[in-house]
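Inputs:
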Amino acid sequence: MEPFRTHQGIMLPINQDNVDTDAIAPQRWLITVERKGLGKGLFGSWRYDDKGRDDPTFILNRPEYAGASVIIARSNYGCGSSREHAVWAHLDYGIRAIVAISYGSIFYENCLKNGLLPVTLPEDQVNDLMNHALAADRRTLTVDLATSQLIGPDGTTYSFTMDEGRRQSLLKGEDDIAATLARRDAIDGFEKRHDQAKPWLR
Amino acid sequence: MHSKEYLATSQPSDAYVPGARTAFDKLWDAHRVDDLPDGRTIVFIDRHLVHDLSSPQAFSGLLANQRVVRSPERTYAVADHIVSTAPGRSEETVPGGREMIMALRRNAARYGIRHYGIGDAGQGIVHVTAPDLGLIAPGMTVVCGDSHTCTLGALGAWAWGIGTSEVEHVLATQTLVMHRPRSMRLTLRGRLHAGIGAKDLALHILRRIGVQGAQVGFLELAGRIVADLDMEQRMTLCNLGIECGARTAFAAPDDTTLAYLAARVPDIARNAAALEEFRRMGSDAGARYEIEQSLDIDLDAPQFTWGTNPSQVIGVHEKLPLISEANNDKEQQIMRRSYEYMGLVPGESLHGTSVQRVFIGSCTNGRLSDLERAAAVISGRKVHGGVRALVVPGSQHVKHEAEKKGLHRIFIEAGFEWRESGCSMCVGMNEDRVAAKERCVSTSNRNFEGRQGPGARTHLASPESAAAAAIAGAIIDYRELS
């Protein structure tokens, strides 16, 4: 996993609650055995018209949001299906961080596993950033994971919190699997006792 | 949103007993391997189910990092998401799909994992076939790269959906790492009137508590209403747990659970120690979850979704909510968008709205008893001329059992298509899709924009309601047909 330290980029406002992973990564862009190449399907049903052309009314296609790399969203972002393709689609498109009031739980975990930073802020602060993102100019946000701060386009600082262990993992780009495999003896020992106590669970 | 209630915490009627343990306390303690320095816990996984959509990238990750599958004997592979449901099917499906199906077959063979693919009697939707194959027992930790894994909590398992990176983690270590999740009990009091089942109940609960109503890692569903449901209805109810935010929905094992197991895993049913353990698995009297809520239920009409999230639910005879009834601007916006997408008018009733598609199947309602209830509604009738109707049995086992009972003849004679098993029109990944602006009454679990196909309009409902819509060519109260 790529480490995440700081990032500065244009904000893309996705101004609605309960944006589900079917909307983020619609089913017809999931037919692949690869992690790469999913960016073209990000918000596919909203982004293209029925002939497959860019729909100029969808915010992602507007020229002022070209190259956007931070999504500003609302509550329960990424709810629904567990498809990790939703996270890979963000990364492949070039999104490095998301700021939202809350997330679907599986999506949130998938973000952390892939180094896509999911920042959680209270509603009034998200509203503040949403207004900046929707405005005609001043849409750049700085995300600093080392200090757990966002710096808005007008210089306002927003502190955020997340699980400290996960923050450290993101900063270092650490792999959970390697850390767990280092505990192989504990797992082997547990499994032996577990199988003896409850052999019917095998 | 329409009559959404946020419930005050309500304590169970029994007196709190210090030290009494919830079902989740027991499951957590029984699977806790070790604690990591960052405060997370390594949790042991008894059963890992992998499928064609969410596993190929996990297996490639293993290979790239020179890792192997730690416990192939605890792992089962099932092709379900992308498979064709056409009669006489092969691995051929939509372009690119065959590669996913063959990747699963190849990966399973490479690591010695039991595989249920096309042509295998055990193939089916993973959450339908796994319990029928006897792979799920009370007290297990069960994971699958699929959010509807919560379905399997109906058997008294701790079962939850994970992403592909976590699939890779389980393949490599047979564990997951996590903080202890928040847990909650929702006690359902009251009753369901005759002819109203688990799907109506689940939709009604979603209407009452909303899509963010139970954002917890573990949700125990309790109360007389749950205890009175048969095993397949409990699976329907637990299936919709994730739609209100719960990673797991759990029903404590009881005689109904044990009878279901006895028919499928006789060895367990004869194991006195196992039975004793199952009986102790429920929450102790006087135990308390972090969150305790209850709902009074008095449900007397079939429920349908009308909008684009599964909490936008209405009784078949009720009027659709007015925009002005929304609590605030934000909710008004959501309602406007839903009405526009669905092509419906606030204040009218869904009753009589014409439909072009009907889908009976999915991990919510693709089991034998679901097909039996649908067949009872259509028996001797014909599908309306304006409707294309599909029945997709949830598994090959369900299909064969249904055929033994002659249900396929009832469906085929009525004009339904009788298909092979798979996720089909619930996820819209294979060729089974609803066209733009077509209206579909579907027994599945998600009515999101585009879920059943770009522009598709989905109304979630029970098997009886879907069957009746096929006959009438419109949304009706299925009881009108009898």
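The first strand of chain A starts at residue 6 and ends at 13. Flag for discussion at group meeting.
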